[in-house]
Amino acid sequence: MFGLSADDTVTSRLRYWSVTSPETLAFVYVTPDGQRFAYTRKELFSMSRRAASWLSKRNVCKNDIVLCLVPTSPEQTFIALGTALLGATVMCTNMQYRDGSDISPLMKDADVTTVVVDETDQQAIAALQTFIPNLSAPSVISEAVPSLKSVIFCNRFSQLSFLVAVAAEKEVDLADVSPDDVTTIFATSGSSGQPKLVTRSHSQVMTMGLHYYQFSLQTDSSLKTDVHYNPSSFAWLSGYPFLYLTTGQTRVVPYFKGALPDDEAKFTMELMKREGVVSAFLLPQTIKTLLARADLLQCDVTRRLDLSSLEATLSGQILPLP
Q1: Which pLDDT score, from 0 to 100, does residue 189 have?
Q2: 53 Cβ neighbours under 8 A, 6+ residues apart
Q3: CB 9 within 8 A of CB 85
Q4: Computed from CA positions of residues 91, 145, 118, 18, in that sequence, does the dihedral angle turn out positive or negative?
Q5: Closest listed residue to residue 286, CA positions, set 242, 240, 238, 214
Q6: d(Cα 209, Cα 245) in Å, to the nearest integer?
C-alpha cells in the first residue's frame, strides 16, 4: 500500500513522494494576512535536503539530538525533516516556564546536542540563558545539559531569513539511515508529573501513519485523505507528518507569525474552504466554537463547503460534522 516497504525511512518516503506526482502539493502554510507558503512534494524534499545542508554547516551531525524550539511554521518543518535526512534525531517542543525549568531536564534526559531557536523569541532565549551562560558562543557549555554543544539561531523574519538562506543551499548528500534508527522524540504533557520522553524510529513512524489511515477507513469508509487540515506542531503525536510520509496527503496549516487573528474561527473556516480541505484534525473546543457560530455556518463561504465531506478527528475518533 502506498509503495511502503519494511525498509522505509523518512528519507526514502520523502524521496518516494518527490517522484510520485512531484507537482502535487505537500504542505501549505497560510497566514491571517494572506501570505501563502506552498510546497510541492518535489519542493518539500529539495528544501528539506537544503535545510540539512544548512544544519550541517552549523555542526549538526549524524546521531545528534536536535531540540527545535521554533513554533509551527515552514521553518519548523524543514528543520525537523532536514535533521532526519542527516541521520539525526529531532525533538520539537516549546517552553512553558520563563526560567526554562521545564525544558532543561528533558534536554538532559534526551542527551540533546543542539538547540535551534527563533532569534526573535526573547522569552525562549532568556530561559536558555539561565542554564547556558555562553549562549551565543560557537560552542556552548551547560552544566545542566552536559551533552549540549551548540545553539543555532533561526532568523525567520528579515530579508535574509532562514527560508531564503536554505533555498540558496545545495542539496546535501543523504545520510545512510536504518528503519530502526530513532528519528523523532516526543515529550508527554507531564500531567502526571515530570514529562517523559517517547522515542520513535523511522519504522515506527511509518507504522503509525498506516495504522491511522486504516483506522480512519474502518471508522468511515467515505473518509478522504487528499487534503487535510492540521494546525498541530510536530511536537505532538497529532502533528508529526506521519500521514504525509505514508499516504502523501496534502497538509494545510495555519501559520501565525504573531498575534492570532481577531476572528480565528472565521479564518479557520475560510482557509479550509479556500484550500479544498476534506478532512481535519480539530480539538474539541475548536469544534464547539465552529458549531456555535451560526454566522459561519450560514455564510457564503461555509454554504459552498460540503460539510458532509469534512471530517474532524476528535480524541482518536472520527467525528462527522453535521
Answers
A1: 73
A2: 82, 169, 170, 171, 172
A3: no
A4: negative
A5: 238
A6: 8
d(CA 299, CA 222): 26
Q: Which of 20, 55, 21, 25 is nearest to 249 (CA)?
A: 25
Q: C-alpha 28: how far from its chain's center?
A: 12
Instruction: Encode burial over 105-138: b for 16+ CB neighbours within 10 A, e otherwise.
Output: ebbbebebbbbbbbeebeebbebbeebbeebeee
Mean pLDDT throughout 271-278?
89
Cell 480541505 belongs to residue: 277
pLDDT digits (tens, 9 = 90+) for 73-127: 999 999 999 999 999 999 999 887 777 888 999 999 999 999 999 999 999 999 9
Q: What share of the chain is helix, strand, coil (3-state, %, to 5)?
A: 35, 20, 45
Distance between alpha carbon 32 and the CA centroid of its chain, in Å? 19
Q: Which three cell numbers stand for residue 281?
A: 484534525
| pTM attached to this predicted model | 0.90
H or E element, residue 163: helix 162-167
pLDDT band at 310 (very low <50, low <70, confident <90, very high): low
Angle in degrees, 0-180, between the axes of helices 74-85 and 10-19, rounded to the nearest 10: 110
| Long-range Cβ pairs for the range 238-242 (8 Å, 24+) | 238/281, 238/313, 239/72, 240/184, 240/186, 240/200, 240/205, 240/208, 241/27, 241/77, 241/81, 242/205, 242/206, 242/208, 242/209, 242/212
Among residues 218, 209, 161, the alpha carbon closest in space to that of 184 is found at 209
d(Cα 93, Cα 135) in Å, to the nearest integer?
A: 19
